[in-house]
Amino acid sequence: MAWLVTGGAGYIGSHVVRAFQAEGLDVVVLDDLSSGHESFVPANVPFVRGSVLDGGLLVHTFHEHAVHGVVHVAGFKYAGVSMQRPLHTYEQNVTATATLLAAMNTAEIDRIVFSSSAAVYGTPRTDLVTEETAKNPESPYGESKLIGEWLLRDQAVATGLRHTSLRYFNVVGSGDLALSDTSPHNLFPLVFAALLDGRTPRINGDDYATPDGTCVRDYIHVADLALSHVAAARRLSDGQPIEPVYNLGSGDGVSVGEIMATVRRVTGIDFTPEIAPRRAGDPDRIVASGALAARDLRWSMRHTLEQMVQSAWDSSRAAAH
Fold first, then answer.
1. Closest C-alpha to 114, from 243, 289, 207
2. Which EC number(s) does UniProt give (predicted)?
């Protein structure tokens, strides 16, 4: 019996796959490689190239590999781009999730861990976000993730589906030199790409209402995140009580300025980042409590900021060579 990881050839998904393997759990990967890399999939893991929008392929994969649970990581994850491509975002994140749930129902698979997002909160009015904080997504991406959670909820009422959704903010670092964040929109790969090219990194705004003027966010290590996906899958398999949603948050957060200082120490490259204009709608501070996930999903911040930056820098350099 195996778990299917959709998007398992991507940055986060590939770490989830390795976390499952490390705990002796069989896993299968389905990915269309629109942003993932086949090289990220271990040689001993079955790989199916295809889209979550292909219901027939899903049902075939479920039966061929004796799948009994799904970790749904695949999706279009670029909040800013989603403002220009809303229909594409909804197709990839909503239609695909509905297709997946229909295929699971056909194959009588009744457990799923859903990779959601802190984008469902929009700009919260509280300094510390909990699972009960009001949901006010401000992009088609955030809306699509919230709708995904609703789909799981409603399918659970209809069929008894066992599920949980994991909401998280900024995922960084690397648990394996061969796995790097290749997103063209995330802070760490953008900063490292600039340094490796001999350019000066840019950050957005230095006039926020924070101690150093740069915005404060949750940054969590991808390997810590992956372990909580495994813990969630185990609870579903074992029939243990599980909440419908969990925040994977640090509880305190770090500023972009602190990250830049850490990047200077780790890389040994002295630079002063260029200050670009603030992005519209960016709040001063968003930090989430991870208390509920710590109780149920083995969640903890096992890596310091220095370790997050070091592992991300090492994997970025390895990818560049």
1. 243
2. 5.1.3.2
User: Tens of pLDDT along 197-246?
Assistant: 999 999 999 999 899 999 999 999 999 999 999 999 999 999 999 999 99
Which pLDDT band, with edges at 50, 70 and 90, does 280 fall under? low
The two structure tokens encoding residue 64: 């061929």
Strands 67-72, 216-217: pairing is: unpaired
CA 74 to chain centroid: 9
Q: Which of 261, 288, 266, 253 is nearest to 203 (CA)?
A: 261
Residue positions annotated with a catalytic role: 141
Closest Cα to residue 215, out of 189, 192, 187? 187
Tally of CA atoms within 13 A in the half-sphere of 159 that contains its CB: 20
**Token pair recorded at residue 6:** 């959709």
Q: Is the pLDDT of residue 194 over 90?
A: yes
d(CA 8, CA 4) in angstroms, rounded, equals 8
In Å, the largest CA–CA distance within the chain is 57
pLDDT tens track for 66-123: 999 999 999 999 888 999 999 999 999 999 999 999 999 999 999 999 999 999 998 8
CATH of domain 173-217+250-320: 3.90.25.10
Helix (H), strand (E) at residue 316: helix 305-320
DSSP code of residue 213: S
The residue ranges of every structural domain in the chain are 2-171+218-248, 173-217+250-320
Answer for the pair 257, 208: CB distance below 8 angstroms, yes or no: no
CATH number of 2-171+218-248: 3.40.50.720
Nearest CA to 305 out of 183, 188, 206 is that of 188
Are 138 and 283 in contact by the 8 Å Cβ rule? The answer is no
Tell me the per-residue pLDDT of 122-132, one tens digit each, with 9 for 90 and over. 888 887 999 99
18 and 228 in contact (C-beta within 8 Å)? Answer: no
